[in-house]
Amino acid sequence: MHDNILFLLALGTTGMLLLAISIVLLQVRNQNRMLKQRELTQLAEIAHQKQLLNAVIQSQEAERKRIGRDLHDDIGAALSGLRLSIDVFEPTKADGSQHFKFKSNCKTAIDSIIAEVRHISHNLSPSMLSLHGLVAALNRQLEFINRTDHLQAVIDNTVPELIDSLTIEVTTAIYRVLEELINNTIKHAKATNININFNAVGNTLRIHYSDNGIGLPITSNIKAKGMGLQNIESRLSMIEASYHILDQQTSGFHLEIEYPLNRVLSHV
């Protein structure tokens, strides 16, 4: 009788223990399932946000191209026509010196406006980017800078074939990022030199941008300091590239962009 009671107690204890273990395993399984579902939901949200950001950037580029074409075709043509009208205009009463001065001043002003319109049109929609590639488009942009006595820019491309293999989406993103960096240098850095270097290290395409200006202090919240760096981060994230600002002991600003070469080679 006593043995039967002990057996029943042991059997009951074992059953309760197995039940408790089953409940714990079921809870762990449910938690793992919930965590996996939450992770999948987060990944889906991130992918959706990237799609939205990509749509916004593509829309911006399309609008840039439209405005650029309108500036070049409509306003540029109108200014050229105005210049021609002034050039052929003759006063009813001859006043040689004043008339020549008037025509010369008008043509100089119109030529300056035409050049500026072309420059703006090129910045909005750089046709050389799709026709001749990233480096050619950048060189065209830097021509305007190098004409001044205040700032000189140099490009060092050690991987020309690799750069030429980039898709138009990637080259556009990199071009806009470098354009943002150049504009920041012009506006804020008080620099006299800009250097842009393209090279490959291992499986990574690296683009090193530097100037010899006043530099930018490295702080924990540096990315929150302005829209410029936020725009850079957004455009690079769309091509799954990254950037980091180098902490240099020397003066100037140094930023390095890294783009995985396997993404480049997949499009070759």
From TrEMBL:
PROSITE patterns per the UniProt record, alphabetical = HIS_KIN
Residue ranges of every copy of the Histidine kinase domain listed in the record: 70-263
Molecular function as annotated in GO? ATP binding; phosphorelay sensor kinase activity; protein dimerization activity
- Provide this UniProt record's keywords sorted from A to Z: ATP-binding, Kinase, Membrane, Nucleotide-binding, Phosphoprotein, Transferase, Transmembrane, Transmembrane helix, Two-component regulatory system
Q: Name one Pfam family in it.
A: HATPase_c
SMART domains associated with the record: HATPase_c
Decide whether keyword Transmembrane is in the record.
yes
Q: Which reaction does it catalyse?
A: ATP + protein L-histidine = ADP + protein N-phospho-L-histidine
Alphabetical list of PANTHER family matching this protein: NITRATE/NITRITE SENSOR PROTEIN NARX-RELATED (PTHR24421), NITRATE_NITRITE SENSOR PROTEIN NARQ (PTHR24421:SF10)
Q: What is this protein called?
A: histidine kinase
Transmembrane ranges? Answer: 6-28
- One of the record's GO cellular component terms: membrane
Q: Which organism is it from?
A: Mucilaginibacter robiniae
Q: Name the Enzyme Commission number(s) assigned to this protein.
A: 2.7.13.3
